[in-house]
Design goal:
The chain is built from 17 helices and 14 strands. The chain has helices at residues 10-21, 33-40, 51-60, 70-74, 97-109, 126-135, 156-161, 173-183, 198-229, 233-241, 262-275, 281-294, 297-304, 332-342, 355-362, 396-402, 417-422; strands at 2-6, 25-29, 64-67, 79-82, 114-118, 142-146, 166-169, 193-196, 313-317, 346-350, 367-368, 381-384, 407-410, 426-428. The strands form 3 sheets. Strands 3-2-1-4-5-6 form a 6-stranded parallel beta sheet, with helices on both faces. The chain has a 6-stranded parallel beta sheet with strand order 11-10-9-12-13-14. It has a two-stranded parallel ribbon with strand order 7-8. The radius of gyration is 24 Å and the shape is globular. The mean pLDDT is 96. The structure holds uridine-5'-diphosphate-glucuronic acid. The site of uridine-5'-diphosphate-glucuronic acid has 20 residues, from α9. Pathway: Nucleotide-sugar biosynthesis; UDP-alpha-D-glucuronate biosynthesis; UDP-alpha-D-glucuronate from UDP-alpha-D-glucose: step 1/1. This is UDP-glucose 6-dehydrogenase. It is an enzyme of class 1 (oxidoreductase).
Length: 434
């Protein structure tokens, strides 16, 4: 099948590459000339494990191409994916200007029937708007389908190639047949393609992310209560996660969720509710809980140092919002580091992938260590913000020699309490006794 993907951000690039891998002829379109030139030269602008292998194979074999020309990109395409940014506007609602601009252009350019697919996370009613914008100029038949993406950064290829489900919102039988054909190689293991109307598909995406944000925030609140009531949130997680109605995943308490999706999508869904005059109370609580959770270690750190962080050196492990990504959007680390600096502390940080991105934000206001151990040199304490696997089983004997004090503030509950006690650490974590 010949397909076009408009927008080469995270979702667009993964979508294009993976559909090339399943044998389609894919052209990715982006208005950013520098980015397109890089992609043509084989440079992938994001860090995503496994993407390079598929990218290199499919560009080499001529199935994956890049252009800045929308007209060229959609030539002969049966399916046109819109994977464009929907940044939050000032009021928190998703801004559709990029999507609607391309929709208008498509109306002028379409020469044959095509299925236009909203892949971006877009509010309820967007498919109808896209349809209207294309209709303004279109001389041919077309369908607009909502096909939200559920991939996670860091495991994007696996999530895309082996989706739990594929959600397709359309009432058109013709479009359903095209989409079924395209997704057939990805759902061979029996995972469902779920058809529904456009509005329901759009809402499904927000409901999925908001539900996961609720799940995490619920556990974070349980953790906060555990600290007061003398219980251990790890045990609670095991105790409830084994109930198949609850499920084991996304029950890890910590310093809150970040990234480009959960915060933005929870906010946008709250905005949608507001537009429909519905008082969606859980969403308000989730936003509130998460905002507080992100900095919950700060008062603990402050108290440990008797309110005086001036001149103290704090090592920070982990800057990305989660492991296996260099993405620092809404990462708890940044907010915490800003607060530590404001309190007069010196910060030395280490992250295996995200340091370049942090340099663009914090510049030389902090020190960047070459290794996780180098960050500990002469530090008064270690703060853990991201659960990169290398932080899980460090050489404590090495750490003991480097750290000035055996003090760890762990926002991701990486270590066993007993183990830390035996080694003589003052160990603060989330939802467990100190
Ligand atoms: C999320 C969803 O998981 C994807 O299904 C969705 O497609 C994507 O948003 C999107 O809308 O594009 P992502 O933001 O890449 O994916 O990352 P997650 O792995 O979901 O983690 C989100 C945040 O939740 C991270 O900050 C993570 O640290 C936090 N988290 C996750 C917890 O605090 N506890 C957990 O148990 C799980």
């Amino acid at each position: 099948m010949k397909i076009a993907v408009v927008g080469t951000g995270y979702v667009g690039l993964v979508t294009g590459t993976c559909f090339a891998e399943t044998g389609n002829q894919v052209t990715c379109v982006d208005i950013d000339e520098r980015k397109v030139q890089k992609l043509i030269n084989g440079i992938i602008p994001i860090y995503e494990p496994g993407l390079d292998v598929l990218f290199n194979r499919n560009t080499a074999e001529g199935r994956l191409k890049f252009t800045t020309s929308l007209a060229e990109g959609i030539e002969g395409a049966e399916v046109i994916f819109l994977a464009l940014p929907t940044p939050p506007g000032e009021d928190g609602s998703a801004d559709l200007k990029y999507i609607l601009k391309v929709a208008g252009d498509l109306g002028q350019l379409l020469k044959d029937y095509a299925v236009i697919v909203d892949k971006s996370t877009v509010p309820v009613g967007t498919a109808e708007k896209v349809h209207d914008y294309i209709s303004l100029g279109a001389q041919v038949e077309f369908d607009v389908v909502s096909n939200p993406e559920f991939l996670r950064e860091g495991v994007a290829i696996d999530d895309f190639m082996k989706p739990d489900r594929v959600v397709i919102g359309t009432k058109s039988e013709r479009a359903k047949a095209v989409m079924n054909k395209l997704y057939a190689p990805l759902v061979r293991q029996g995972n469902p393609v779920i058809f529904m109307d456009e509005r329901s598909a759009e809402m499904t995406k927000y409901a999925a992310n908001a539900f996961l944000a609720v799940k995490i925030s619920f556990m974070n609140e349980i953790a906060n209560l555990c600290e007061k009531a003398g219980a251990n949130v790890d045990d609670i997680r095991r105790g409830i996660g084994t109930d198949s109605r609850i499920g084991k995943r996304f029950l890890f308490a910590g310093i809150g969720y970040g990234g480009s999706c959960f915060p933005k999508d929870v906010q946008a869904l709250a905005k949608t509710a507001q537009e429909y005059a519905y008082d969606f109370q859980i969403l308000k609580s989730v936003m509130d809980v998460n905002a507080k959770q992100k900095t919950k270690l700060l008062p603990v750190i402050n108290q440990h140092f008797n309110g005086d962080l001036k001149g103290k050196t704090i090592a920070v492990w982990g800057l990305a919002f989660k492991p296996y990504t260099d993405d620092i959007r809404e990462a708890p680390a940044l907010e915490n580091i800003e607060a530590l600096l404001a309190a007069g502390a010196k910060v030395t940080a280490y992250d295996p992938e995200a340091m370049d991105n942090v340099k663009n934000v914090l510049g030389n206001r902090i020190t960047y260590a070459h290794t996780s151990y180098a960050a500990l040199d002469d530090a008064d304490a270690l703060v853990i913000m991201t659960e990169w696997p290398m932080f899980r089983t460090p050489e404590f004997s090495k750490m003991n020699l480097l750290l000035k004090n055996k003090v760890i503030f762990d926002g991701r509950n990486l270590y066993e309490l007993e183990q830390m006690k035996e080694m003589g650490y003052t160990y603060y974590s989330v939802g467990r006794e100190t």
